[in-house]
Structure formats: structure tokens, C-alpha cells
Amino acid sequence: MGIKRLFAFLTLATIAPGIFAQQTAQDAEEEVARWGVNMTQGVTEVSRTTYDLHMLIFWICVAIGVVVFGVMFYSMWRHRKSKGYQAAQFHESTLVELAWTIVPTLILIGMAIPATKTLYDIYDTKEADLDIMITGYQWKWKYDYMGSDVSFFSNLSTPQSQINNQQPKAANYLLEVDEPLVVPINKKIRFLITANDVIHAWWVPDLAVKKDAIPGFVNESWTRIEEPGIYRGQCAELCGKDHGFMPIVVKAVPEDEYHSWLNDRAAAAARIKELTNKTFTFDELYARGEEIYKSACVACHQAKGEGIPGTFPAIAGSKIATGPMDAHMSMVVDGSPSNPAMQAFGAQLSEVDLAAVITYQRSAFGNNMGDTVQPIDVLNFKNK
Amino acid sequence: MAHGPKPGFTRWLYTTNHKDIGSMYLWFSFAMFLLGGCMALVIRAELFQPGLQIVQPGFFNQMTTMHGLIMVFGAVMPAFVGLANWMVPMMIGAPDMALPRMNNWSFWILPFAFAMLVSTLFMEGGAPDFGWTFYAPLSTEYAPPSVTFFIFAVHIMGASSIMGAINIVATILNMRAPGMTLMKMPLFVWTWLITAYLLIAVMPVLAGVVTMMLMDIHFGTSFFSAAGGGDPVLFQHVFWFFGHPEVYIMILPAFGIVSAIIPTFARKPLFGYSSMVYATASIAFLSFIVWAHHMFTVGMPIAGELFFMYATMLIAVPTGVKVFNWVTTMFRGSMTFETPMLFSIAFVILFTIGGFSGLMLAIAPADFQYHDTYFVVAHFHYVLVPGAIFSITAGVYYWLPKWTGNMYNESMGKVHFWLAFVGLNVTFFPMHFVGLAGMPRRIPDYALQFADFNQIASVGAFLFGAAQILFLFNVIRTVRGGKKATDEVWENPEGLEWSVPSPAPYHTFSTPPVVR
Amino acid sequence: MATESSYYVPEQSRLPIFATIGIFLMAFGAATWINGGSSYIFFAGSLAMATVLWFWFAAVIKENMQGLNSDQLKRSYVWGMGWFIFSEVMFFAAFFGALYYIRTFTLPWLGGEGDRGSSNMLWEGFQNTWPLMVTPEQAVSGDAAKVVGPKGIIDPWHLPLINTVLLLASSVTVHIAHVYLKKGNRKGFNGWLTATVALGGAFLFFQIEEYLEAYQHLGLTLESGIYGTTFFMLTGFHGAHVTLGTIMLLIMLLRSVIANHFKPDDHFGFEAATWYWHFVDVVWVGLFIFVYVLGA
Ligand code: HEA
Ligand code: HEA
Ligand code: CUA
Ligand SMILES: [Cu+2]
CB atoms < 10 A from the CB of A26, how many? Predict the structure, then answer.
């Protein structure tokens, strides 16, 4: 291959990606921060210090790179055989070798000092104004506002149709949830992070908080958000099939707004509790059950109840969903005795929702049991 | 013992010859590179656009896991062992490896082990899907049934590596020609000696950790479960005690190869031979005390965090010594740029870039932002692809004429280099950007703002993959025939391997040469 | 450094490929078996492996008898065995390390001490003790817990102490046997080696006795939380190594008694087995201290 053709090929190879990119740039949604190339500065003091630290090391590396590669390119240019350059024969010099051991060491010490300071700051979780317990589940987050009754799950709210390319993707595709974590600004918030099943990691770049959620252990972390706003993050530890689909949304609001939100939440929880004694019709339960199924069960048992062979059993035609009610309730309320992936939903869903989703499963996907279970039955089952 | 290879395929099955075994290792490794590469292409194809197009999330995770495992254990490690088999005896003036029958055994275990590993893809519940780092409890309580086969595959793979490493240690310490003192050994031999020690020290720990998994899954023990008093993080400590030295196992022999090639084409002796040896040893030593830099976010006590941060940063010093030595070797040399040299120069530049991002990752507070993002993926592909893979490629081009007696096609080699160089940077450089912008790794689908760079990366991956076809083609052509190579092949290269005919006789040194 | 002029490179050999098939069948068979399949593949593999090893060692011994093995080759065997034992050391290190980590970090955290002490809020009532008689799960769920701690543990000053004495004594006897061998005293060698094998057998007998006691009376099992886990994994792997070492020594004994193998100046096969034996002994001392004494 001639050198000209080679060049033509190389140029093409370098430009081609650019052309591709150009094209999508036109039809994608605006608004999103496109072509972002660097770490966010974030909205907390820690996130800014982290950013500064990152830039500091980055520029040091660039500087060293310029020197090293500079020398290298210089000699590749000047000291070539094709230019008739005669090779020198030197092959050691204790002085130089000593110098380039010591100088990098000093540079490293220069980096280590600010890094150590920042680390101490990040580790100081004392004297928080507010404690929030965060629990990772496959594949959703649970938030408990410690010292209040408020506690809820936060699920991905991007519809399957967008993920499967049947609908255009919205601006916050995959970074949106049904219920965000609401927090007050300018308060030191301590996060107590744990997990229910496998390891997850709770990460919001704008807060520079990333901490693993480890089943059986509680990790601590903290933040103090300075600006109201919505900050988005994602689970940052491989946690199984839907690891890519468990986003985090933090909504930071002024303090009074936060308190009224908290009160509303508590009241809503109380209302749900009251419903436990109500008797529902089959249709009411079925309709509500469908909603619950879509948010809580669909990830494993799939939209048509077909499951994933070998991993998650089908609900359609399932022996348990078409068998005795007690066994079905036990599976959903207490979880599977043999496979921890089937969690104990008794602690996650209200009695009403449990009754609804069980009723739904027994009559959906071609299962035609047609029977109902009432919230009060579930409560009795739980207390047994 | 003046006899050649036996005819027929039993030559390969029963062989005790280091060259035959070396070739088999290299071919096996290349096959695995293609297989692992194809899995990477599945990953890149799925990530070409947001949304799920080609594979389901569960299968995507299997691809990621198998890609990592196959590249690490199937492509890079066997390739280095293959090069060691070919070159170590020739470089130290030995007739063969110290324990030739065991050598054959070490090799043949690999195809069987990988057959077992790959067969998990067809099992009920699918292949391992918990990443090549297989963190518990995702890999224990929540794993597909095929995990048992994965565990035993790792066991026999480990046995193969340990035997291979013992063989290399015995060969180097025991089989050197008279006069070949330790400090006269070529650097490739030195780096492999130290690598072999790393292997012997850490492969058993890997065997230990998979055994703990096996017990937790099937026999009710509580290593990784807090309910019984265990700890999932224990898994990570044991794994990374193996895992970090493992990544240096994948780079130290590369240092050796590059240290052989650069002086040849700079026509100038290697600068700072002894500091190279000491630097290699320091890197190996430090590699044992930095493992938890992979675990900065697990919630270690701050003292641990600081210790592992400082120790990790220190590795930049001996590695820097190496980089400076290579640059100084080139400085005021008389350079030419044949294919092996091109790959070696690219190695020095791109590996250094990968090292720089490694250093950034080592800064614990900053790692809180980088960890488990594509920034990490960019880092390790920069040290592995233009690091390990480029050095192997360089080594193959450099020694191929000696192995086959024929010259490879130089212009095809150069085209291969430039395509690979461009393809690789187009693939992996943008990953720094999406990583910093917040894209987590191991996800089959991503938010819209990462779309553009992912698209570029996917295009680059196919370009890089296509370039490898040229390599395959070039090697096969050279094995079949071509311009005859001289005994020295290059202009005045250093080393015993150049003192024998090309192709090297089946038994190189039946009587040891004398080294002055 | 090599001074010899010729190094024995064996001809082509079928042994390794059969050994490969053997080890593969063992691994594949073990996985199949554990996953609920049949055990035949595993046993077929083990049989194949044992057969190959038999022929392999026979070949090496024959070559040595024929004087093919130069001193240099013998040094290769020495290096090989030495580093093999080192790899075994690292294997045990993984398990000792796990024990250390659990006791120094994990349990205090679960019990509410130290940096991650807030973990205790998930395991209210759990206390960090060693031996761990009440697992975290038990502390929370009481009788409903799946992982229940042991009722009792092994007293180090009975069987384990006896076993320590037995094993230490066996290291001495095997050394004496070695000395006799070097002096060319075949009878002394056979006698002391027999004593060593007997001591190894006695150790194993008591070890089994101890396990029966643990399983039948103490509720100390693999499944009784982290104490049982570390206890059985460490002592179990050690026991497996003692078994292997005893078999190795027994074979050496039979080779000496039946075939008159080993010369005063040429007996690396036996020496390798003694190295292995001493290694197993050292591991036991570690176990006795860290698992039994400091664990009680
Ligand atoms: C060949 C393999 C290889 C090599 C050589 C390295 C080299 C290094 N790596 Fe890398 N690393 C991996 C393979 C490798 N790594 C892999 C596979 C992972 C991911 C595993 C996974 O999670 O899947 C990983 C992940 C990884 C992490 C964890 C990131 C995370 O998950 O959050 C960290 C953190 O410290 C790290 C650091 C380093 C450092 C400091 C080096 C150093 O050795 C680099 C030293 C080199 C230089 C610094 C450049 C040259 C030096 C100079 C020119 C001198 C002057 C320079 C200065 C003073 C700055 N690596
Ligand atoms: C030495 C090791 C090595 C090597 C060489 C590579 C090579 C490549 N890797 Fe890999 N990679 C890892 C080690 C390695 N990787 C590890 C350890 C992980 C982590 C896994 C984990 O998270 O658990 C990882 C993860 C990883 C990811 C992240 C996955 C995720 O987080 O979900 C990605 C994504 O792009 C990727 C891409 C690539 C690409 C495009 C190549 C390319 O260089 C591959 C090029 C090769 C080929 C393409 C094949 C050869 C060509 C043909 C067969 C011809 C046909 C081809 C065409 C016609 C185009 N790798
Ligand atoms: Cu949860 Cu990843
Ligand atoms: Cu590392």
C-alpha cells in the first residue's frame, strides 16, 4: 500500500466518527449537557475541592507529559538514522537517575498533601442536622428519614417503551424516578448507606458523594447542598441485571418547603394505613395491582409475566400464583426461602399494595383464578 | 539430540519442546483475543446508541464479564507465557525449559479450562454476569448456577499459571549458560523472573477466594455474609490482593519486551540497565501493598484509605524511572522506525497516559468521583491495550523472523500499526470524557448526554478490531514463507537469540554457549 | 548457573495430555456433581489423574535410575518443589488473612465498635465475641435465624494438644529417618519412616474424632456462622494436606521397602515429601495458635 493511500485511509478513519457524531447531534434532545468532557464542579464545598484536586493532578500530569513526550519527539525528529545521525553510546548516569527518582517523589508529596486534607473533610460525618438512611435494593433505592415516619422507595420512571426505542427518549432518559429524595439546602445531611441484597453504590456527582451500599453494614457519608435544584446520579456498583436502571434523583429545596413536604408525606402514609381496613372490589384491586406490578415486579417477572427462563420464574401459569392463596402470600410477603432475589415484599409494600398485586397476579397473564385477597387478610397473615 | 519435530498433530499434543509450546500458547492467546474482542464488539455495538438495541441487560453483563475474563486470563497472560517459552531459553542459552513435560501440561490445561468457561454461555441461567471482579454476594447468593463451573475453571487455570511460573523460575535460576550472571540477563528475562514470583504468590490467593465462594454457595459457610458474621468486603480484600499484582503481571513482561526493542532500533545500549532491574523489583514489591485502591468507596477507615493512597502513588516513581530510561535510550540514538519500534514508541507514550490516569485514580478523594465510571475503563484500557497488547504485538514482529526464518511484510506491518493506533485512541480516549461527565461502567444503556462520545468509541472499536485482521494475515504469510531473514535480522541487536540461525533450530543450545 | 554440558530433555510424552484430560474431568465433574448432577465424571477424572500420576512418577524414577538426570535437572526439581510449597503457603495465607480480617475488623464493626460501628443498627443486640457463639442474625431473629452459632467449641488443651505433639513428633521422626537414609542405614530409615506414617495416621484419626465431636455434640459445623466457617476451612484444608502428605510418605516407605529405592546421596523424591511434611507441620502450629488457642 502506497504511503498516499495510507494517508487517505487514515484521514477517513479519523474523520468518520466526527461525521457520525454530527448527525446525532442534530436529532437528539437539546437541553442535556452535551459533549461534557470534564468532572462537574458540583454544588457543595466538597465537590468543588474534589474538582480542584482533580484539576491540579491533571495539570501536573499534563506538564510531566509535555516534558517527557517533548524530549521523546525531539529525539525522534533529530536523532534519526535517515538523517545520518550517529548514535551516542552512553548508557548510565547515577546523577540523572537519582534526580528523576527524587523529583517525582517530591511532586507526589505535593499532591498528597491537599488530597489528605480533602479526605479528612469528607470523612467527618459528625454533627449532622439530619440523618437519612439509604438502602439499595435490586433495583431501586429506599429512603428512610430517620426520626420521622417517612420512608419510601424510589424507582426508575422511564417507561420501557423509551428504553426499547418505541418512543422518543425524554431529556432525562434513565435519570428520572417516581419519587426523588427531597432534602433541605444548607443543612449538613448525614447518609447512612446500606443494602438489602447485593452491593450497590449511591452516587450523585454534583454532591461528590459516592459510597458503597453493602448488605449487613452501614457506611456513612455526608453533604451540605448550597443551591436548590435537582441533582441526578446512578448506582455505581454492578448489582445485577438492572444495574444500569437504578438512578438517583435528589431534590434540594429551601428548608420551609422541605418541612411542608415532610408533613405531606407523613399524612399520605397515614391515609394509606387507614385503607387497610377497607374492603375492595376485584376490579379496584386488579387495577391497583397492575400499577404495583409495573413498578415493583416487572424487572424480574417481565411485562407479560413470562419471567426470564433460568433466572426468574414466570408468573403466567405459575404453580404458586395459581395455587393456594397462603403459599402465594407467603412468597410475596416473606420472600422465597431458597432464592434471595425474590425479596420479602412484606416490608416494602403497604398491605393494600400487597393485596392488590397478589390479586392481580392471580388473574393476569392468562392466570384465571378470579379470587381476591383483602388488605386485612394480608395484615393478619403478617401478624401470624 | 539432533532431531527435529515429529510429524503429525501428535507433535503438538505430546510435545516437550519449548518452541512448540510457545507457539501453541501464542496461537491460543490470539484466538482468545479474537473471541474476547468479539465480545467487546457486542458491548460497543450495544453502546453505539442509547436504548436497548441488540442485547438484553442480563446478556450484556455476561458479555462484559466474559470479555474481561477472557482478555485477562486467556489473551494477555498466555501470550506472555508463550513469549517466555520461546525466548527465555534462547536468551539465557538453555536447551529448553527446566521441566518440559510439565510445560506441556501447563499449556494444555488452558484450552480445556476456557472451553469450560465459555460453555457457561450455553447453560441455563447464562454465563457469569457479575463482572470479571465477581464481587460477592452478587457472585455467590445471587449468581447463576454456572458460577460453579466458573469457579472450577479458575481453579485449573490457576494451576496452569502456577506450574508455568514455577517452570520459568526454575529455568531462569537453574539453566543459564556459563557466564550469564543475573545482572547480565536480558531485561525480558528479569521482568519475567519477577512476574513469575508474582504469579506464584497471588494465583493461590485467587484459588482461595473462589474456594470461599464455592463454600458459601454450596456448603453453607458465612465468609461473605454478615448474617453469619462474615463480610462482603472481605471478598474484595482477598480478591484485590490477587487482583492488583495481577495487573502488573500483565505489564512487567511488556516492560521487558520494550526494553529489548528500543535499544535495537535506537542503535544505542539501554540506558540504566540496573535501575531498570531495581525499578521492576520495586514495582513488584509495591504491588502487594496497594490493593485497596480499588476499594476506596467501600468505607474503609481513613487510616487504610491514606495508606493505600500513598503506597499507590509511590508506584509512579519506579515506573517513571522506566519511562525516563526508555526516553533517554532513544535520546541521541540513531533511530529507525520499523514496525516493532513503532509499537514500542506508541507503548511508551500511551502507557504513560494510562499511568497518569492511574495516578489520578490513586488520589482517594478524587477517586470517589472516578470510581466505577468509564474513566476507570479508559485508564485500564490504556495500560492494557497499548500497554500489554501493543508490547506483545511488538514482540511478535520483532522475533517473528527469528522464529520462522522469514521477514514479515513491513508495509503491511506499518499499516497495521497506524490503523491500530488511530482505532485505539478513537475508542478509548473519549471514555475519559464520558467517565468524567458521569457515565458509570457496566451499564447496557445510558443517559442521552453520553451518546456522542459513545458513538465515536464504538466506531473506533470496529476500526481497531479490523486492524487485527491485517496482523493475522501478515503473521500467517510470514509463517508460510517470504523473504529470508538473516541470522541477526536487525542491525546489530543485542542478545544470544540473534547468535543462532533463523529460523532457530528446534533445540537451540544443546551445549550451552559461553557468555563473557 | 549451569556448568554441566548436557541437560536431559525428555522425548515427546503422552503423560501431560492425559493429565490434562484427568484434571479437566475432575474439575468439570466436581462442578457437575455439586450442581446436582452425577458424580461419575468426577470419579472417572480422579481415577484418570491418579493413573497418570502413577505413570508420570514411574517415568521420572526410571529416568533417574538410568542416570539420565544430571545434577542440574535435579536442581530444577528442587526449585520446583520449593516454589510449589511457597504457593501452598500463599493459599493458606488467604484463609489466615480472612480469619484475621474478620476478627480485627468485621466483628467489631458489626458489634458497634470502630469506624463502621453504625452497622450495629442492622444487628441490634449483637455483640462481638470470639468464639462467636451468637451470630448477628441470631441476635436479631432469635430462633428463626438460619445461621445459628455453635453451642460449644473444641477445647485446645485436649485433642488439639495431643495432635500438636503427634505432628511435631512426626517432624522429628521423619528427620531422623532422613539422617539414617543419608548414613545408608536402610533398616533405620524404614523404621523411622513407618513411625512417621503412623503418627500422621494417628493425627488424622484424632482429627476425625474431633470433627465428629463438633458435629454431633457441639453444633459446631460449617454452617454455624463465621466461627465454624473459619474453623473448618482452615483445619479442613490442613487435614487434606496431612492426608496427602501421609500418602506421599507412605508411598516413599513402600518404594523403600518393596523396591529398595533411594540412595544415601540421591533421594530427592523422599526429601520433597519431607519438605511437604514439615510445611504441613508449620501450618499446624499456626492453626494451633491462631485457631485453637487464641480462638478459645
Ligand atoms: C496493565 C495493567 C495496569 C497497570 C500497569 C496499572 C497501573 C496503575 N494503576 Fe490501574 N487498573 C488496571 C490495570 C492497570 N493499572 C485495571 C485492569 C483496573 C480496573 C480493574 C477493575 O475494576 O475492573 C485498574 C484500576 C485502577 C484503580 C482503581 C480505580 C477504581 O476502580 O476506582 C487505581 C486507583 O488507584 C489504579 C491506579 C493505578 C496506578 C497508580 C498505576 C501505576 O502503576 C501507573 C504508574 C505510571 C505512571 C504514573 C506513568 C509514568 C510515570 C512517569 C512519567 C513519572 C512521573 C510521573 C509523576 C510523578 C506523576 N488503577
Ligand atoms: C487485556 C485486556 C483487555 C483488552 C485487550 C480489551 C480490549 C477491548 N475492550 Fe475491554 N475490558 C477489559 C480488558 C480488556 N479489554 C477488562 C478487564 C474489562 C472490565 C470487565 C468488567 O467490567 O468486569 C473490560 C471492559 C470493557 C468495556 C466496558 C464494559 C462495561 O463496563 O460494561 C468496554 C466498552 O467499551 C471494553 C471495550 C474493549 C474494546 C473495544 C477492546 C478492543 O481492544 C478489542 C479489539 C479486538 C477485536 C475487535 C477482535 C479482533 C478482530 C476480529 C475478531 C476481526 C473482526 C472484527 C471486525 C471486522 C471489526 N472493554
Ligand atoms: Cu444497584 Cu448497581
Ligand atoms: Cu490496582
Answer: 6
Round to whole Å and give the CA distance between B404 and A210.
53
- Three-class secondary structure of residue C101 per DSSP: helix
What residues does each domain of chain B span? Answer: 20-499
- C109 → closest Cβ in A192, A194, A217: A217
Identify whether the C-beta of residue A233 lies closer than 8 Å to the C-beta of residue A136. no
- The domain B20-499 belongs to what CATH superfamily? Cytochrome c oxidase-like, subunit I domain (1.20.210.10)
Same domain assignment for residues C20 and C150 = no
Nearest protein Cα to ligand 1, atom 10: B358
A195 lies within 8 A of chain C by CB:
no
Residue A10 banded pLDDT, cuts 50, 70, 90: very low
B406 DSSP assignment: B
Residues in chain A with CB shorter than 8 Å from the CB of B335 are 75-76, 79-81, 85
**Residue-level pLDDT at C250:** 95
Same domain, C39 and C128: no
Does the pLDDT at position B477 exceed 90? yes
Mean pLDDT, residues A285-309: 88
Q: What is the predicted pLDDT for the residue at B228?
A: 93
Note the pLDDT of residue C30: 96
Q: Which residue has the higher pLDDT, C80 or A14?
A: C80
Average model confidence (pLDDT) across chain C? 91
On the question of pLDDT at B336 being above 60, the answer is yes
Q: What is the mean pLDDT of residues C30-53?
A: 94
Spell out where B183-263 has E strands: none
Domain span holding position A314: 278-383
Query: In total, how many domains does chain C have?
Result: 2
pLDDT band, residue A19 (cuts 50/70/90): very low
For range B194-212, the mean pLDDT: 97
The pLDDT value given to residue B516: 67
Decide if A250 contacts A230 (C-beta within 8 A).
yes
The DSSP secondary structure of A15-61, one letter per residue, reads HHHHHHHHHHHHHS-SSS-TT--S----SSHHHHHHHHHHHHHHHHH
- Which backbone phi and psi does B343 adopt, to 5 degrees? -65, -35
Which amino acids of B are annotated catalytic?
Answer: 67, 96, 132, 160-161, 244, 246, 248, 259, 293-294, 319, 322, 441
- Residue pair B514/C5 in contact (Cβ under 8 Å)? The answer is no
- Going from the C-alpha of A208 to that of each of A225, A232, A233, B293, the distances in angstroms are 11, 11, 10, 18
Q: For position A184, which CATH number holds?
A: 2.60.40.420
Contact C108/A at CB under 8 A: no
